[in-house]
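Weekly modeling sync, notes
Attendees: S.R. (lead), two postdocs, one rotation student

Agenda item 3: backlog of single-chain predictions. S.R. asked that every request posted to the team notebook include the full sequence so nobody has to chase files. The rotation student volunteered to paste the first one in as an example of the format we agreed on. Action items at the bottom.

Example entry:
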Amino acid sequence: MTRAGKCDTCRSRKVRCDEEKPKCGSCKKKDRACSYTYGISAALVFEDPKQLSKHGKARTRPIIHPLKSYSDRAPATARTMPSHQSAQKKSQETWPMSALVLRNERPRTSSASKTNTQPNAAPTPANLDLILPQPCSHETILLNRFLHMLGPQSVEHNPLSIYGTWISSLPARLGTSPVIDSAVEFAVNSFAAYRDPSFSKRSIAHKSRGRSLKELRNAVGYEKGISSYDTLAATKLQMTAEIFMGMETLYHTIHQSAMTEMLRQGNTAGIDDEIFSDFLEDTYMDDVFEAIIAGRTSIYDNETYLKRTYRSGVLACPSPDNPKALVKAASASVMHLCIQLPRLNFLTRHSVSHPKDAKVLASARYLAKSLWEAYPTSSLRDLLKTSFMIVPRPPFPEISDLLPTSFHFNSVGSLVLMTRYWMARNLLCGLIQTLYRHFPVQAELALLPELEVVQKEDINAAIYIARSYRHAMSVSLELPFVPLRVHGTLHASIGAWGRLIRRLTQDTYNGETEITRDLINAQRMEDWIVDMCDRIHDIWGVARLRAKHIKSAIEATAGEAIPEWIPTQVEFKKQGDEMVMKVQFDIPAEKIQEFYGWPAYTESWSRSTTSPSPFEVE
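Predicted structure, as returned to the notebook:
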């Protein structure tokens, strides 16, 4: 059987061909000319279906239009539309055509095409040459697919703008960097597999994953610790592609950790301050969440980033008439707050478990007080006035009686920034209330804000997050990245309603009040937010969490004990012929029998689960 993919040289020599492009291995080895022209459409053949025999053969001579290349076609005559239309009308009057046949012919050379070698070819005017789309380059096809994935929205309302404005600069980089090209190819292939999870689409995406990982490893090894724009953008695109391939594999966390490590010291080359800030804004919050749950400080909680965000955020007072500078200052101030929350969480948890450690308790009180007094900054106050508007529509019909209005933001970036700030307020309020609950006397002596003020601010921030849900879900149905981004803020707001329910329930048990409508409404809001988080899980095909697990994790974000089911360590190690991800849990002895029904012979027991890694073993 003749293979259509062979190059012309190997076909004429009747030998095997590896079909590599632009030059196959055999031609490259012998330095021969290598081209792929077999099977390319060379002519358009017009036949009259009324002039065919019963066997389908033409009784009259067909009209043949050779498909010339752009170099063979005169530009002036090919673009003359009036003469083209008149000639086409004349030809239709002479030859009534109703069928189009596309024939594959061997291509002719440019010298041969100038002479009429086909006896049955009818004379055609020069301006009747058809202008058909010519084969596009790989970069052009990749660019079109990437633009299709981005969608027709503007940068301000594009769902991928949660990563920052740098995403709009990627089309100009295609074709200039192999690591960018391979990462974009993996992203568009995984997006196609996300929309159509067929075997063929996922197989194509898996193959492009291997190529992009190879290019990324080579780029990282070549840079030797100084990250470039191409490497950072490719890593972020790899993470996006892994999210499309499936979040339950946790492969996206590999690139998330790599991105955090590359930005930790700020050693970058050839990146302006705006692009670097975009990369940073999208990355640091993932580490903040992980640090709070794991019981450690954020890796960005160092002198470099604290000074950077304090100068450009907390101390900055941009004019409200300069929206770009206002957003930049507000983003830096929110980062200054967020990267210190894991440290306050760690100090609070240590104080609760070690109440006699007065030094750590004093550090927790001082940090909580300083963070409360510094916010909101002037830039945040100005941005809160201009970044959104109130619309008379509820976030969801189920809570229309509780929240009859919702927020509509002027951009996706404003939505992400404002919900992140309100989430940080929820976390800060939860930590201050924990200090009040365990150390009421010390909290008042430390001049922390009044408990009633903190509780009111806690509920207000949770309400603002709930009002933002409608806009987050309406940004894009095909590319639901915005709901995924606000998923963490919704989870954090559960803590505010849980703390309100606990206060109202305690008042009921103490006989001070009866079960009021406020308690019922708080329970409704908590159930609604849990349901909305489950909806986001369903959108991305992630298993739903149990309500008790959610609540225990929320308690950990407020400085309480870390639940046993949360991993204490996640790492990748070589096991046999592949890399595996190991997740370790430390379980106290009294919980072993409760979880597994096994007798507790030891004080504690560590278990680990493994899953294959997409990285190749070297």
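Discussion: group reviewed the output briefly. Residues 369 and 448 are 6 Å apart (CA to CA).
Action items: rotation student to repeat for the remaining queue; S.R. to check formatting next week.
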